[in-house]
């Protein structure tokens, strides 16, 4: 284009020079002729350049327009000269698209996994900044959000955590247990080459509590077994060495017998709790009338109520349930037994059974000594006694309500207790009609 423009300017200039040549005479100096030709050239250049620029702009736009509108979808055709480049670019575009799609799928998969994890997960880079953190990690650490790039010092202000992170960045794996907001969290620190370190948080609160309960249970069992055995051993030794007068042999034997009975009851309760803990009760699941079972329990326990001068009132709606009959029998027997043991003379017990929305509701109320409010949260614990001297006097093992709670939980039900000291206690049990 520039060559054409230059050629045009030269031709026009020469043509005009011939036309103007006759206007010059011999008196005209070379300098005058030079400047006249320069002026002439400028005029010619302006006359030729302007239309050429306009034409060039339009032609260029027309040539470039198909390239600008090209979408690399393989269906358009443009200049043959550009076909190799377009083909190469289209291949690279497709490859990049597949790579981006693969990365997006991988990112979505990783996000889905980390989001659904109950365990907390945090990845920290070599500078100590967070790369990724899931929702569980935020919950464990008690923060509303953890942003990528945030320093771990801002996220967790715990010296042990930061010491373990530092060790992990140096290639040393470790794990620690930390109490966070009434929960026990196990932190695992694993080195991740070229990334930093990976922190995995596992909630072991239930395991920790179970271990604590197991230790307490073992200690309590040892204590509870030792007391009657010591009594039996002491009385037996006195009888063996003839240290007891003839008239006292009967009372001594009676004491040994009562302590033996208490020991047997304690062992039976411990065995039953062990069976419930394993969720493998010996009795089969059957369908039966709950009201008939309660009447059977009342019939067996009436003599104890009569001895304690306690009356039993009942209002039972016939309700068929599918459950472990023996366990349900034990549950009702324990509840009625406690209502009798801890009642007052001339007291009463009221039993109500009704059915509501695929559940049966059993309410046992007594007019007994009641339970102080500060003890209500712990009465279902194993071996927990409000008044240990009264419990031993009545033959209680401290496991009755714990067994009731386990039986109810085994049948996926709920148990609630309401009580006022010196007024009475009401225990409400809700069980599903059908046990799955």
What class, by secondary structure content? alpha+beta
The CATH class of the largest domain, by name, is Alpha Beta
Rg (CA only): 47 Å
Summarize the biggest pleated sheet: 5 strands, antiparallel
Would you list the SSEs in sequence order as H and E? HHHEEHHHEEEHHEHEEHEEHHEE
Uncertain ranges: none
| CATH topology assignment of the largest domain | Heat Shock Protein 90
| Range of helix content | 40-55%
Which architecture of the largest domain per CATH? 2-Layer Sandwich
The total tally of domains equals 4
CATH-level-4 superfamily name of the largest domain:
Histidine kinase-like ATPase, C-terminal domain
Number of helices: 12
Shape: elongated
Q: How many β-strand stretches?
A: 12
Terminus-to-terminus distance: 90 Å
- Walk across the major sheet and give the strand order: 2-1-5-4-3
Mean of pLDDT: 79
- The fraction of residues in strands falls at 15-25%
């Amino acid at each position: 284009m520039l060559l054409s423009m230059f050629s045009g300017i030269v031709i026009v200039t020469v043509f005009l020079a011939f036309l103007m040549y006759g206007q010059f005479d011999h008196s005209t100096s070379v300098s005058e002729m030079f400047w006249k030709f320069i002026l002439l050239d400028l005029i010619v250049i302006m006359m030729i350049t302007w239309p050429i620029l306009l034409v060039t702009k339009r032609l260029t736009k027309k040539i470039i327009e198909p390239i600008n509108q090209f979408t690399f979808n393989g269906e358009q055709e443009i200049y043959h000269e550009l076909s190799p480049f377009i083909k190469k670019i289209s291949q690279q575009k497709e490859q990049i698209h597949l790579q981006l799609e693969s990365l997006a799928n991988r990112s979505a998969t990783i996000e889905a996994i980390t989001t659904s994890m109950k365990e907390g997960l945090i990845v920290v880079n070599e500078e100590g900044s967070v790369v990724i953190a899931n929702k569980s990690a935020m919950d464990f650490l008690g923060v509303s959000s953890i942003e990528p790039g945030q320093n771990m010092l801002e996220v967790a202000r715990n010296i042990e955590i930061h010491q373990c992170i530092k060790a992990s960045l140096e290639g040393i794996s470790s794990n620690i247990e930390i109490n966070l907001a009434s929960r026990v969290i196990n932190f695992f620190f694993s080195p991740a080459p070229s990334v930093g370190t990976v922190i995995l948080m596992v909630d072991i609160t239930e395991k920790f509590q179970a271990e604590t309960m197991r230790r307490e249970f073992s200690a309590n069992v040892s204590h509870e077994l030792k007391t009657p055995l010591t009594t039996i051993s002491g009385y037996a030794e006195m009888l063996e060495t003839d240290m007891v007068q003839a008239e006292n042999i009967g009372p001594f034997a009676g004491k040994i017998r009562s302590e033996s009975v208490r020991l047997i009851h304690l062992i039976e309760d411990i065995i039953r709790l062990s069976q419930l803990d394993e969720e493998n009760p010996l009795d089969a699941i059957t369908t039966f009338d709950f009201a008939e079972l309660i009447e059977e329990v009342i019939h067996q326990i009436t003599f104890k109520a009569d001895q304690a001068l306690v009356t039993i009132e009942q209002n039972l709606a016939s309700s068929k349930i599918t459950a472990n009959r023996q366990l349900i029998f034990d549950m009702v027997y324990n509840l009625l037994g406690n209502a009798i043991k801890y009642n007052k003379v001339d007291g009463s017990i009221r039993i109500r059974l009704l059915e509501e929305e695929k559940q049966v509701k059993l309410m046992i109320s007594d007019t007994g000594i009641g339970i102080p409010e500060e003890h209500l949260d712990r009465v279902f614990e194993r071996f927990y006694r409000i008044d240990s001297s009264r419990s031993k006097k009545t033959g209680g093992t401290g496991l009755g309500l714990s067994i009731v709670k386990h039986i109810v939980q085994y049948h996926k039900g709920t148990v609630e207790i309401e009580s006022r000291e010196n007024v009475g206690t009401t225990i409400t049990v809700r069980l599903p009609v059908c046990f799955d």
